[in-house]
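for the recovery benchmark. C-alpha cells below, seq after
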C-alpha cells in the first residue's frame, strides 16, 4: 500500500506557526488520492482537521481551524502540506496524514485506509 511519511511537528508558542509535511512513497502518486490531516489529543477522539479532494482540489476545514490552517499539494514533490498559523494551546495533539484511493471522501478517519506515523504538535507559553 501507499506509504506516508510525516515531518514538521514540534514545540511552538501560542500565535506561532508550523508547517507539516506528508511525503508519499511506494510508487504512488498523490494526485489520485484524497488526502486528510487528522489529530488526536490524549483522551479524545481522532478528528478531521483538513482534507483535500483529488477530483477538483476542493478542501475541507474543521470549524476550529478554519482561517488559520491551509492544506496544499506539491505534485512535483509528491507531498502534501498543512500550514498552521495562529496556533492555540488547544491545537496540541498528534497530527496524522492519511490517504484514500478515490477522488472524494468525507473528512472522517473511517474513510481513510493509509496513514502516516503521526507527528507531535505542542503549543504552550
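predicted aa per position
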Amino acid at each position: 500500500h501507499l506509504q506516508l511519511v510525516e515531518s514538521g511537528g514540534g514545540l511552538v508558542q501560542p500565535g506561532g506557526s508550523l508547517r507539516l509535511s506528508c511525503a508519499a512513497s511506494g510508487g504512488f502518486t498523490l494526485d489520485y488520492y484524497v488526502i486528510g490531516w487528522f489529530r488526536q489529543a490524549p483522551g479524545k477522539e481522532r478528528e478531521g482537521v483538513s482534507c483535500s479532494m483529488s477530483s477538483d482540489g476542493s478542501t475541507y476545514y474543521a470549524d476550529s481551524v478554519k482561517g488559520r490552517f491551509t492544506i496544499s499539494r506539491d505534485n512535483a514533490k509528491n507531498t502534501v502540506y498543512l500550514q498552521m498559523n495562529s496556533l492555540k494551546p488547544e491545537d496540541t495533539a498528534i497530527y496524522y496524514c492519511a490517504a484514500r484511493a478515490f477522488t472524494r471522501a468525507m473528512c472522517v478517519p473511517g474513510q481513510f485506509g493509509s496513514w502516516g506515523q503521526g507527528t507531535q504538535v505542542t503549543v504552550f507559553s
